Amino acid sequence: MPALTILTCYYRPKPGGLCKRYFRGIQALLARGHTVHYLSVLPFPITHERCIGHRFPWPQHATQGWLFWSVFHLLAPIGLLLLAWRYRVDRIYSFSVNYAWMLRPSARLRGLRNRVFLRADLLQNEALQQRQLSRVLGRRLEALALSDADVAAVSQELLDRVQQRHPRMHLAQACVFPNDLPPGPSYARARLRQPCQLACVGILEPRKNPYLLLQVLDLLHAPAHLHYYGSGPLLAELQEKTRGMASVSVHGWVEAASIWPQVDLLLMPSRHEGAPNAVLEALAGKIAVLASDIPAHREILPVQQLLPTDDPKAWAAMIDRLIEDNAFLDTLQHEQAAAAQSLRFDWDQAFCAIIEADHPLGHREPA
User: Fold this and answer.
1) Which residues, 6+ apart, have CB-to-CB distance to 290 below 8 Å?
2) Domains of the chain: residue spans and CATH
3) pLDDT-derived band of residue 364, with 50, 70 and 90 as boundaries?
């Protein structure tokens, strides 16, 4: 494969699975000899002579709010257009609808198809946060951004939902491109410790539904300690709410390798997920998982591990049973391991193949 010049865009590095996969994809492209240009307010955490950052002229500490996003949506397409022309890029891709819209003029200039990796349903997240105006504008932007694009969605459910939302929208090609299970050691347990070490891992924001677990903790009969790992808009509020609670620890952001050896059972009560990386990391480490009964979890977990987002009694009853019944825990772990087999593939290679392909993607899953 001849070396390609590739253009992409994301406003700044931040915690969470999206940036983790985004940067992993860039590293994979660099390893195959390609050059990646990107536009961002802050540089990406990638040091490589062929990873070339171009700074969007905006104060680095002020990348929130309507003013920033309005200016960014207006000016970033122009900056990207200049980059595409100057460096004669061969491929254009993004990890979100917003950036697909910004890159659309550049793709047209170069006669390329915009390649979009859909990682989550941003409109559903806006609805959960009751941002009606953002949702209306986002719906229009989504249709414009994805029209005639190559789309690789992280789940079949997400791809179907977007297409149902825009029945007249034409996608050039579409495929399902799930996250894989990361490599790493196993932490499988024949029984859960007492007190059981429960964990909620990920960005602390309303859609993650973190406060449900405080209700669950109050209902447990078996001894347990609840750990929150992650940063986000609810971090300070959660720290204040749990101050003085001996059975709860709020750690903030922690390296994944330091989390999983301490965890007996991962709890993911999210109301909405795109690609739940914490669940995948737990599956890879053979750690038992209980998660909310939402589409993103249904595609990767057995139904027995899924619970309502608003029923703390059901969560507490399941946790008590897992702590007390070793045979039930063993059955759950075996079913979990079987479900996870489809997520063992070379994600880096599959990602690069989608970027490099001259031929249509087709409706397929990665080999």
Assistant:
1) 265, 266, 267, 268, 305, 306, 307, 315, 318, 319, 322
2) 5-179+346-356 (3.40.50.2000), 196-343 (3.40.50.2000)
3) very low
